[in-house]
Amino acid sequence: MRKNWPVITLGLVLLAGLVAPFADRSTSPGFYVEVLLGGLMAGVLYSLVALGFALIFKASGVFNFAQGAMVLFAALAVARLAEQVPLWVAMLIAMVIMVALAWVIERLVLRPLVNQEGVALLMATLGVSYFLDGFGQTIWGSDIYKIELGIPKEPVMILESLFQGGILVNKEDFVAAIVATALVAALALFFQKTTTGRALRAVADDHQAAQSIGIPLNRIWVIVWSVAGFVALVAGVIWGSKLGVQFSLSQVALKALPVVILGGFTSVTGAVVGGLIIGVGEKMAEVFLGPVMVKAFDLAGGGIENWFAYVLALLFLLVRPEGLFGEKLIDRV
Questions:
Q1: How confident is the model at residue 27 (pLDDT cuts 50, 70, 90)?
Q2: How confident is the model over 222-258, as pLDDT tens digits?
Q3: Which of 45, 81, 124, 296 is the most exposed, fewest CB within 10 Å of its CB?
Q4: Cα–Cα distance measured from residue 316 to residue 309, given in angstroms and rounded to the nearest whole number
Q5: CB atoms within 10 A of CB 178
């Protein structure tokens, strides 16, 4: 891990160097900090979604296209159940639903594909994604729903004594970032320090070898899909509270793809670092680089946040395809 820190530092320095020359020098330092904090909070939420991809990839060695649909399905369950029962009860019931869903997916989809080619598992998760999208609409409906967490949505000014004009922070984003950070830290400890976490890594390396030493592959898959379901539930509640629960919510998961590319598909730590880099990078680019591009190339402006992460991920694939914390594969012939 230590060998990767120079790469992380270099990436951040290059990103800062890209943005800084184009920034408005008259802008107050507080505004820079405000944009930075906004990027960090968005990055933590991206990391939360990316964790689901990383966890499934660790267990099965395949990219889980169903993660976005799981986020949407969990958010829909909470939103509709909360109309009948208190929110905390709705979340508990939704958690039971997500665990049951994980068991069904393992039993009916993954278990028959044990030791098959990775592309078979990839297509299976793609099928699960479309099924959950349609099944969720059948059960919960297709309207736009709200999740009220009881957190004030009005922004507040902080650090007014340090920066002129203060720093504008959204309370809901701040609380969501704290919750996401706590969950990320707990999952990182779980997969690094527990026997189940080590067994999960063994399963990801070689299914047959893991089975041969007595690791129950089916149980591991149920556990990791259940954990991914829990992560999807938390991400769905947070994003649903911010954006409303609608079917476009599943597209939020697409922002997690550049995150796992940067961090490494097999790394929980990488999902965190990648999310922070993407969050800060896209905010900085939108605020500081966008106006310069508009003036230089006579563009309409806006939209940099939509493509910046993917361009950064593409450039990263050219120089370090395994990601910051991914395992470098060496084929010996």
A1: low
A2: 788 888 888 888 888 888 887 778 777 767 777 788 8
A3: 296
A4: 10
A5: 12
Instruction: Assess contact for 141 and 80: CB atoms under 8 A.
Output: yes
Q: Measure the CA angle with vertex 147, ends 142 and 152; round to 5°.
A: 145
CA atoms within 13 A on the CB side of 9: 6
Compute the distance between CA of residue 97 and CA of residue 74 in angstroms, rounded to an integer: 8
Q: pLDDT digits over 157-211, tens only?
A: 776 667 666 677 777 777 877 887 888 788 778 777 777 777 776 776 666 676 7
Half-sphere exposure of 257 (CA within 13 A, CB side): 18
Helices (H) and strands (E) in the chain, counts: 13, 2
Classify residue 287 by its DSSP letter.
I
Q: Which two tokens stand for residue 98?
A: 């997500």
pTM to 2 decimal places: 0.78
DSSP-assigned letters across all residues of 96-157 = HHHHHHHHHHIIIIIGGGTTS-HHHHHHHHHHHHHHHHHHHHHHH-SS-B----S---SEEE
Tell me, what's the pLDDT at 207? Answer: 64
Q: Which of 319, 191, 210 is nearest to 266 (CA)?
A: 191
CA distance 75 to 239: 8
Contacts of 234 (CB under 8 A, 6+ apart): 48, 179, 180, 183
